[in-house]
């Protein structure tokens, strides 16, 4: 078993790898997919078009505690869901432009959440963990992991970024904070 940990000023992260856990996850993934493919997909779902029916995009965090379908009432075929660390609009830009320009989505909803890991580190913390002295030392790393210290401010900055971008339809852009403990969302912008 391989175990490593990383500690910074606000959080302790522990990462554990084992072959048996990896094998169990893979087996569950494969078995669940077999079941889904044979019993869950309806004829109507098979006929869904590529563009989302309700013409909107949700940009949210990859955090495993968030289930956008349940939390926001998104059914299959309704919307595009773009997930990344921190629910970053900058990180989602490529997918968002494709969603809007090629697939016709019009509304963008940015959803960040309480107790987000992106609040717990800086770029320097992560570069130190990776053993990189500077952002230019390793060309394959992005220059910014996009951490933030203030949740409300991060939502507002993402909305400003989207509204200012020339390739984003910015008429219908809004931002929310999702509370991982209560399941409620509060509009910020």
UniProtKB/TrEMBL annotation:
Family annotation (CDD domains): beta_CA_cladeD
Recorded catalytic activity of this chain's protein: hydrogencarbonate + H(+) = CO2 + H2O
Record has Lyase as a keyword: yes
Cofactor: Zn(2+)
GO molecular function (one): carbonate dehydratase activity
Keyword presence, Metal-binding: yes
Task performed by this protein: Reversible hydration of carbon dioxide.
Protein's UniProt name: Carbonic anhydrase
């Amino acid at each position: 078993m391989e175990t490593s940990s990383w500690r910074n000023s606000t959080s302790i992260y522990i990462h554990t790898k084992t072959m048996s856990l990896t094998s169990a996850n893979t087996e569950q993934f494969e078995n669940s997919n077999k079941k889904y493919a044979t019993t869950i997909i309806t004829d109507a779902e098979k006929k869904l078009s590529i563009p989302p029916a309700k013409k909107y995009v949700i940009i949210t965090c990859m955090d495993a505690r968030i289930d956008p379908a349940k939390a926001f009432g998104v059914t299959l075929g309704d919307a595009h869901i773009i997930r990344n660390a921190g629910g970053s609009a900058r990180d989602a830009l490529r997918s968002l432009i494709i969603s809007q320009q090629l697939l016709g989505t019009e509304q963008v909803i940015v959803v960040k959440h309480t107790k987000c890991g992106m609040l717990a580190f800086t770029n320097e913390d992560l570069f130190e963990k990776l053993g990189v002295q500077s952002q230019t030392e390793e060309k394959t790393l992005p220059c910014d992991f996009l951490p933030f210290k203030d949740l409300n401010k991060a939502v507002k900055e993402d909305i400003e970024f989207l509204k200012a971008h020339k390739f984003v339809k910015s008429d219908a852009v809004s931002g929310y904070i999702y509370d991982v403990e209560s399941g409620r969302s509060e509009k910020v912008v």
